[in-house]
Design goal:
3-stranded mixed sheet; 6 helices
């Protein structure tokens, strides 16, 4: 399910993405896209790892931008508002991973923050292996892909992450996430009941 949330104060549309339906099937979502000169801002509660397969691009993460070249990896931490654009053409791999799946495998996303930009040949090699196995779709590929994901995340978390700064940073993250969750639920209710007379009490319930 995807909800579109407009933040007027920021003067931009932000797509809040929830993937509960996907998580009931697999603990990850992977696809590749050809970037364009314009794009939407996205935000979600799960971790996302992007790999620039070819070309050059610009990543916007919250209030700053990062220039990318082929082979770069961008880690989008939970609830970071982000988008990717290109002026000259680029292809990007997008991997979103369910936080529950990572927690069961000893990676607690609430306790660490990944570095935003990773320039590392070994990390790129592990990501490329994931892409290759995903495209092959051979027998037992699901087990192989999950192994690829855990090897990649294990390497990146070991070399390019830090612990959240005490309790305040974690509290801020949870508070920010809850505000998006509440807004998402309110929009869901309005979309389902827009033909009825809706009160503020109904939406806030």
């Amino acid at each position: 399910m995807i909800n579109k949330i407009l933040l007027p104060s920021a003067k931009r549309d932000i797509v809040y993405e929830t993937l509960e339906d996907e998580w009931s099937k697999k603990p990850y979502v992977f696809h590749s896209d050809n970037l364009r000169a314009s794009g939407k801002y996205w935000v979600h509660k799960d971790i996302e790892f992007n790999f620039l397969i070819s070309g050059s691009a610009t990543a916007f993460l919250d209030n700053h931008k990062i220039t990318l070249t082929a082979g770069d990896i961008i880690c989008v931490n939970p609830y970071v508002i982000h988008k990717f654009i290109t002026e000259s053409g680029a292809k990007i791999g997008i991997l979103m991973i369910n936080t529950g799946f990572l927690s069961k495998n000893a990676v607690d996303i609430e306790k660490i923050r990944f570095h935003e930009l990773v320039k590392d040949d070994e990390a790129a090699k592990l990501y490329n292996q994931l892409i290759d196995d995903f495209e092959k779709q051979e027998a037992f590929c699901e087990t192989t892909i999950r192994g690829d994901i855990l090897r990649f995340v294990g390497y990146v978390s070991g070399h390019y992450s830090r612990e959240t700064e005490k309790d305040q940073e974690l509290s801020n993250l949870r508070s920010f996430g809850r505000s998006f969750e509440y807004t998402s639920k309110a929009i869901d209710y309005i979309n389902l009941n827009f033909r009825k007379k809706i009160t503020l009490e109904d939406v806030s319930a």
